[in-house]
Every structure is written in C-alpha cells, then in structure tokens.
Write a structure and sequence with these properties.
This protein is about 40% helix and about 10% strand. With about 525 residues, it is of the alpha/beta class. Among the domains are: about 35 residues; about 190 residues, Rossmann fold. The radius of gyration is 29 Å and the shape is globular. The two termini are about 45 Å apart.
Length: about 525
C-alpha cells in the first residue's frame, strides 16, 4: 500500500468543508437562466434538473446502508455524491470524456486507488451500456436512465463490500454457482484491506480467479463470518431517546446530525414529520431495546442499548416503572445507576480551598449526596430557595446526626458564592445574579443553558477514557471526544471490580471514595476546570 495517497484518493472539494456546495452555484444559475430565457417552450431543456432525483436516490440508498451497518465513512460518499453528480452532468453536456474518466467520476475515489479496481469499473461500464450513450454527441433521456441504473449498481456493490458484516447465505451461491465469480462478499473484499496484495477486484472476483490473485483464506473467512456467534455483553448501558426526532441523531440515523449537538436540529427535519411519526409509532409497538454500539475494555465486552421510549413517557403515571431488586434477591444482574461516581466527580471538580458553595436547581439523588459530603468536610452549602433548603435540611437530619453537618446547610440569597452547583431548572434570572467569574458545576446529566459570558460553565460529571477502551466512536454531544459521563463509567468500573452489590434506589450510595479510587486505577481521568472550554 502506498505510504502517501495520490491526488485521486480523496475528493478535490473536501478542503472546502460545508462550502463544497458552492461549486453547484454556477451550474444552477446557468441552467435556470437558460431555461427561463427560452421563448419557445419546446426549446426549454428540463433535462439538466433531472440530476436531482438521481442524487436523491443515491443519498437514500447510501443512508439505508449506513443505518444497517453503522459505517460512518459511508456518509462522505453520500454527501459527496451531490457534487460528484453535478460534475457528471457537466461533463456529459460539455464534451465527450474518455470512458475511464467517466468511470472515475461516478465512483468513490478511494475505490480506485488500486489498479485492478480501475479495470473492473471500465468492464462494468461496458456491460451496462453506458459506453454508447457517452459517445453519442446527442444526449437524450436514455443516458439519465442508464446513469441511474449504473450508479445504483455501483453504489449497491460498493456498500455491499464495505458494510462490515456478512449476510449473503451460503445456499445462495450453491443455487447460483456462477455468482461466485460475478459478485463479491464483504469478507472477500475485507481480505484486500488486510492482505493488500490479494482480492484486488471490485464487484467481480472473476479477474482475481483468472490472474491467480485470490486469497487462499477467502472461503474459510466467508464461512466463519456466517457462523459467527452473537457476542454476550458483560456490561450494558441503557439509554433512551429524548424527543421523536432524536432518532436521527443516533448512529443508525444521519451521521451529519449525529456529529452535532442535538440542539442544532435542522429545518429539514420538520419536512420529515411523516417519517418521524411513523418511527415513533413503530418504537411504541416494538418496545424492545436495540444495540447502539459495542466496546472492548480489557476483558469486558461493553454494549450500549437504546430503549425505544421518549423523555415525556417517563413522566406519565401509567409509564412509570421501578426495578425491584429487593423483590428478586437472587438476581444475577447487578443494577448500577452511577450516582456514587457522579458525586465523586463533582467533589473532585470543586477547587481546593473552597469554603462555601451555592446549590440550586432541581434536587436529585446526586444533589443530596453532594450536599451531605460537602457538609461532612465543613464546607458551607447554601440554598437560595427556601423549599430546597428545607428538603436538604430534612435529608441531612435523617442521614446524619452530626450537628456540624447540619450547621453547614444554610439559607442564603446573597449569591456571593464563587462556586455554583447547578441542576436542571437553573433559570436565566438566577445566572444573572451570579458574580463575575463564577464557576457553574452541573450535577445534572444535561448541561444548563449558559447566559453569562463572564462566567465559566464546567462539563456535566464526566471523565476522560483510557486509550485501551476500544471502538469508542460516540459520546454525549456536549462532551469532548473520548469523554464519557460518570453514570456510564460507573457501570464499567463496577464490572471491572466485580462488586457483587446493587447501586439503585434513592438512598443507596456506594462508598464514594472507593469508587473514585477504583476509577482512577483503571485509567479514567477527571476533566480539569480551565478557561479554554468553559467560558461561554
């Protein structure tokens, strides 16, 4: 394999980023002008606009494969098919290009970084009758139909070879033995990316059989891939969707949205409300968790499952449910909500030397535990709302008989504290009352909406993951790369340590110091408070 890729191994418009669609502007303006300025309706050429249905079909086709195989790399092909299609149309209407150039413009550039791929693409082009249409100087509607057939076939075979899972049954090739030479499989092409000097041909292995470049392990790998057993997880992280359109932000949805915060929903999602409503209905009927992603960490197999329920459903009385671990004392699966590690992360995020903090927002299990732990250390915990103060005081009396601990809980509306521990429900009015340079440290799973430019907003309880944690391709979209929430990490640490205890229920908290030390020992690191990312 070449150490330095050539100029045709990537899209030429990739450096433009989001502005790559500007290359379409001259074509769109010219085509629209020529169509509108023709006086005779018979002379108006509408064929230039037929490229859009072709591009839309390619995008939908590739999106289906992305959802099936979770291959993020395919998105680059889907997004670039728009720009690539414009070049095809311009080339077909401006001049008659040589066949190899036409073949290169239709397929993904990374598919043609090998010499055998180039030869195979030309052969398929002749087989599908594109060559006569291209050579004909008079372009008629048949070229668009042929282009659509050709591109659909190319995209299908391209995605088939790179989908990363084997699904073609063995009986299929037994029933049609000639297809073995005319159609490749994902396992067949994967050997080319691992062995490099075998299985050169795209789509049709016939040429590899002719020239003797077939890898000897192709058949064995194909059969082993079909017999692969389902991997059983050691740790499962359960999550759920928040809003109906949040399904598009998952890995099985649109990668362009999954790589951006959920708050940056696009306008075109409103146009997809029929599909969104259908997916919501199917989620309600199906009502079974599905696998989102899988990781490897040391000897553990970690999986993330999504529950097809939405945030609002958990607030409905008829949807509420509890995990009755006391009802099933012999339950082998240990349930961990991760509150102890979240408390540990918050306590270690507070700068040393702090003597007082303000706790505000909707009180949770983590908030009560943080307030109690800080009071034990002699740090004053103030509450600006009388109702919240009474709840904290009552909880402290029930959980601790230490008078010093109770004295550290105070009711104050001075808003002079430099450290604010905030949860859901933090309002803009409260943030306005904070002093300049105040540090907001969330104890909630979702970050607050920042309004102050002269204050610092820390991340929600989370930690850096060690490099040995494999296949970590996603995270909460308000956290940096390879940073995982404390609630999620807690289950992993629980599994690594082999602790035979549950951590669920409002008053159940595992030893915070023990959990924190174990987490650090396994390579997780806290996020420091710096001005480089917290300042709004």
């Amino acid at each position: 394999m070449a150490s330095k890729p050539g100029i045709l191994t990537d899209w030429p418009w990739k450096p433009l980023g989001k502005f790559k669609y500007l290359i379409v502007a001259p074509w769109a303006i010219s085509s629209t002008y020529m169509y509108l300025t023709k006086d005779d309706p018979m002379e108006r050429d509408f064929s230039t606009f037929t490229i859009f249905p072709i591009l839309l079909s390619r995008y939908v086709h590739n999106q289906i494969w992305i959802s099936l195989s979770h291959r993020w790399d395919n998105y680059n092909n889907s997004a670039s098919c728009f720009c690539c299609g414009i070049l095809i149309l311009l080339a077909s209407q401006s001049f008659t290009p040589p066949l190899p150039l036409f073949s290169l413009s239709l397929s993904s550039p990374f598919l043609h970084c090998h010499r055998a791929h180039y030869f195979c693409g030309s052969s398929i082009c002749r087989a599908h009758g594109i060559f006569p249409s291209v050579c004909n100087p008079i372009i008629d509607n048949s070229i668009y139909r042929n282009c659509l057939r050709y591109i659909t076939y190319i995209d299908f075979m391209n995605n088939l070879g790179h989908c990363n899972f084997e699904f073609i049954p063995k009986w299929f090739f037994s029933l049609f033995p000639l297809l073995k030479y005319l159609m490749y499989t994902p396992s067949f092409h994967s050997l080319h990316h691992t062995q490099f000097r075998t299985n050169y041909c795209l789509f049709m292995p016939m040429y590899d059989y002719i020239y003797g470049t077939v890898d000897e392990s192709s058949e064995n790998l194909y059969e082993m891939s079909l017999k692969r057993k389902e991997e059983l997880p050691n740790v499962v992280y359960l999550t759920h969707m928040t809003t109906p359109e949040s399904i598009y932000h998952m890995e099985i949805g649109f990668p362009a949205l999954a790589s951006r915060p959920h708050s940056s929903s696009k306008w075109y999602l409103w146009l997809m409300w029929p599909l969104t409503a259908l997916s919501t209905l199917m989620a309600g009927l199906y009502a079974r968790p599905f696998l989102v992603e899988s990781h490897r960490f040391h000897k553990l197999t970690l999986q993330t499952w999504a529950i097809p329920k939405y945030k609002i459903q958990y607030f409905l009385q008829w949807q509420k449910s509890s995990i009755y671990v006391k009802r099933y004392p012999e339950l082998k699966v240990k349930v961990v909500d991760g509150s102890s590690l979240a408390v540990g992360v918050i306590l270690n995020s507070i700068p040393k030397g702090t003597t007082q903090v303000l706790l505000t927002g909707n009180l949770t299990k983590v908030a009560y535990a943080v307030a109690l732990a800080l009071s034990h250390k002699g740090i004053q915990v103030a509450s600006s709302k009388e109702e919240e103060y009474k709840k904290l005081k009552k909880s402290s009396i029930n959980m601790s008989n230490n008078s010093t601990t109770n004295e550290c809980l105070v009711f104050s509306q001075s808003y002079s504290e430099k450290i604010w521990l905030v949860g859901d429900g933090l309002s803009k009015e409260e943030q306005v009352k904070a002093r300049k340079g105040t540090i907001f440290i969330p104890f909630s799973q979702f970050p607050p909406k920042p309004f102050r430019k002269d204050c610092f907003y820390h991340y929600t309880p989370a930690m850096h993951t060690p490099s040995t944690l494999q296949n970590l391709h996603s995270c909460e979209n308000w956290l940096p790369r390879r940073v995982m929430s404390a609630w999620r990490i807690a289950g992993i640490v629980h599994g690594l340590e082999g602790w035979n205890e549950h951590e669920c229920g409002f008053h159940t908290i595992t030893d915070i110091h023990k959990v924190w030390e174990a987490t650090l020992r396994h390579g997780f690191h806290p996020l420091p408070i710096t001005s480089s990312h917290q300042k709004f």
